[in-house]
Amino acid sequence: MAQITLKGNLVNTIGELPKIGSQAKDFQLIKTDLSTSSLSDYKGSKVVLNIFPSIDTGTCATSVRKFNEKASALPNTKVLCISRDLPFAQNRFCGAEGLENVVNLSDFKEGSFGKEYGLTITDGPLSGLHSRAVVVLDENGVVKYTEQVSEIVNEPNYEAALASL
């Protein structure tokens, strides 16, 4: 379990992020068109997993905007923005913002992605949602970088994540 904070108050996650050098676990998540997507769909591409509690918070929205902006210049790289938001909310946000360089995926059905990747918050007001984290994978799905953001209201380290590509 990881210990993080929400506005200075201690909260816990269900586990730890995948280890650098390990093979990322496959997953089944829901796209904004309600079709299913898995990690294997992106094999052969570098992948940035931008994970957050909800698209409808300022920091989460900022992370999606920043990765969208930076992803457009990255060759052979996909940015997957993952939360437990409904696909309709994710689609509304990206449509309103004109964001086309990221893929939004929802773990709303069972939360299995959050459990498998050790991200599910287990206590506090955001219990059941994902913590803020970034996981970077190479073209073969090997974990190259992870960041469990220690304070949920803070942004991830974009430069470190992108430098690992």
Question: Can you put this structure into words, describing what you see?
Answer:
With 165 residues, this protein is of the alpha+beta class. Helix content is 22%, strand content 26%. It has 4 helices and 9 strands; from the N terminus they run βββββαβαβαββα. It has helices spanning 58-71, 87-97, 112-116, 158-163, and strands spanning 3-6, 9-12, 28-31, 36-38, 46-51, 77-83, 103-106, 133-137, 143-148. The protein has a 7-stranded mixed sheet with strand order 4-3-7-6-5-8-9. A hairpin with a 5-residue loop joins strand 8 and strand 9 (143-148). The longest helix is centred in the middle third of the chain and has 14 residues, at 58-71. The radius of gyration is 14 Å and the shape is globular. The model has no long low-confidence stretch (mean pLDDT 89).
**Order of the strands making up the biggest sheet:** 4-3-7-6-5-8-9
Helix content, binned percent: 10-25%
Low-confidence stretches: none
Mean pLDDT value: 89
Global outline: globular
What fraction of the residues are assigned to beta strands by DSSP? 25-35%
Question: Biggest sheet: strands, sense, closure?
Answer: 7 strands, mixed
Total strand segments: 9
Terminal residue distance: 27 Å
Structural class: alpha+beta
Q: Which series of helices and strands comes N to C?
A: EEEEEHEHEHEEH
How is this fold's topology laid out?
Layout (H helix, E strand, L loop, with lengths): L2 E4 L2 E4 L15 E4 L4 E3 L7 E6 L6 H14 L5 E7 L3 H11 L5 E4 L5 H5 L16 E5 L5 E6 L9 H6 L2
Brief summary:
The protein has 165 residues and is an alpha+beta fold. It contains four helices and nine strands.
